[in-house]
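Continuing the series of single-chain predictions for the mutant panel. This is the parent chain; the variants come on the following pages.
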Amino acid sequence: MSLLSLHEITKRFGGLSAVNGLSFDVAAGETVGLLGPNGSGKTTALNMISGYLPLSEGHITLLGEPISGLPPEKIAHRGIARTFQLVRALPSLSVGENVLAALAFRKAPLWGAEAEERIGELLEAVGLAGRASQPADSLTYIDLKRMELARALAADPQLLLLDEWLAGLNPTELRTGIDLIASLRERGITILLVEHVMDAVRALCSRCIVMNTGTRIADGPTAEVLADAEVVRAYLGQDHA
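Parent structure:
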């Protein structure tokens, strides 16, 4: 059984279909890239999976159980966590308190000493060891992203959705970010990532799904998909195909 299954999902905004009849499966343990040019519907698809947008048509299942129609907090409690293109920190709190907020609202909440121990473990896992007391609004861009990732991992997700988590990083930070995501993959976390950094996609993803104008145009092993003529046309135009 697939961990995640999308069945002909569609999202309309008035007369515009941002996603149109999208179907794919993600197996447990996979790291899958969800690719496509800007405006192709990738983030909209993540928003439907995580419950931030209702579906216009179709349905989504997690381990065979329907999740489409559930609110975001219920979907999170089923085992799906995500990050956002723009980091959504709680700037008036410390780094540790930001993670504590995630621990407090997960399906099995943690408080007190047990929560403090878990905060330390999560911050160490993302490269922020010993920085729980630091104000969140003092973090650099990459460290904000690390904190956001720690909050997502606080839910002990079965499936992690990463929406351009590597965007905006310099080359050194990018290498660090790729290694961090690879370490999550090695821990057995299933990852669906929206990404434009092809070096990262090649390093992390065994398989890629490519969207264009709201529909799936390719799905297969990363090297094959990135060499596909229709994918090249979608990204670069007819002259490069």
